[in-house]
Write a structure and sequence with these properties.
The protein is 65% helix and 1% strand. With 285 residues, it is mainly α. The chain has two domains: 50 residues, no CATH class; 154 residues, no CATH class. It has a two-stranded antiparallel sheet with strand order 1-2. A hairpin with a 2-residue loop joins strand 1 and strand 2. It starts with a helix and ends in an 11-residue tail after the last helix.
Length: 285
């Protein structure tokens, strides 16, 4: 066995040989007195002379650590950095997971917030719509009250004009007609003070009512002036008053009033139907 060892060490420096002998390499470092402590000897590694010849084209990597021919048993252990890389990867995965959780939570909260805001907006719109409906209904009621009072002079005017035609009660008929005209003017003034901007076609409705009542007032004043003319000139013939320019002007204004009242009634009645209020014929305006 010693001869084998010496053969392996042949050609090596003396210092290396002495070192091997000092550490008990082979049998020389152990005695028979302690057989139980004798370690199992590893077979000697082949010398460089015993290695098979290198194949051409591979260079000298086979005889160096890390080369293709280096014994894997003597490869350096994996550097500690491999474990740190694995820890970093775990940390990266953890951070990525937390980020995904954060995104998911943010998305849920965002959706929840959006759901709440439209609900609040819908409530506001509903309240606004209800308030608008109540306002429109109140406006319709106020206009209805004014329309109801507009017809109060109709009978008086009809009777006064009939009396003038028959040359009867001329002075009294003239007074009644001027009083009716004053009431028409008062209707126009009150209408201008009403707010009915929530009603459909409110602009046209106000315009037609204003035209109708002003024309009616003008007609009443013309008929009153006609009564004065008949009384002053004895313009009666066989119980009938003679027509004058005031009669013609009164008739023209009355026709204008009738036309405007028909248009106003057509605009008012759909509103009255919508808010359950009385509908009116043009003769009731």
């Amino acid at each position: 066995m010693r001869a084998d060892i010496e053969a392996c060490l042949d050609g090596q420096p003396v210092a290396a040989t002495a070192a091997l002998g000092a550490v008990g390499y082979g049998y020389d470092g152990y005695t028979d007195s302690a057989p139980t402590a004798r370690p199992t000897l590893q077979p000697p590694h082949p010398t460089f002379a015993q290695q098979p010849p290198q194949q051409s084209g591979h260079g000298d990597d086979g005889g160096r650590p890390g080369g293709a021919g280096f014994d894997a048993e003597y490869a350096d252990p994996a550097p500690a950095g491999g474990r740190r890389l694995s820890l970093g990867a775990l940390i990266g995965i953890g951070v990525a997971g937390l980020a995904l959780i954060g995104i998911a939570v943010g998305t849920v909260l965002g959706v929840g917030g959006n759901d709440q805001q439209p609900a609040a907006d819908a409530s506001a719109i509903s309240d606004s719509g209800q308030s608008g409906t109540e306002t429109a209904q109140a406006q319709a009621k106020s206009l209805d009250a004014l329309l109801q009072s507009s017809n109060s002079s109709r009978t008086t005017v009809i009777n006064a004009v009939a009396s003038v035609k028959q040359c009867s009660n001329l002075a009294g008929s003239a007074t009644d007609l001027r009083t009716a005209a004053s009431r028409r003017d008062d209707l126009v003034s009150k209408l201008s003070q009403l707010t009915i901007d929530k009603l459909p076609n409110h602009g046209d409705l106000v315009a037609q009512l204003t035209t109708a009542w002003k024309a009616s007032a003008a007609a009443d004043n013309h008929y009153a002036a006609w009564a004065d003319q008949v009384a002053a000139t004895t313009g009666c013939h066989k119980g009938h008053a003679k027509n004058t320019t005031q009669t013609i002007q009164g008739n023209t204004a009355s026709e204008q009033a009738t036309l405007a009242k028909k248009k106003a009634a057509a605009l008012w009645n759909p509103i009255a139907h919508q808010y359950d209020l009385p509908q009116r014929r043009f003769t009731q305006l």
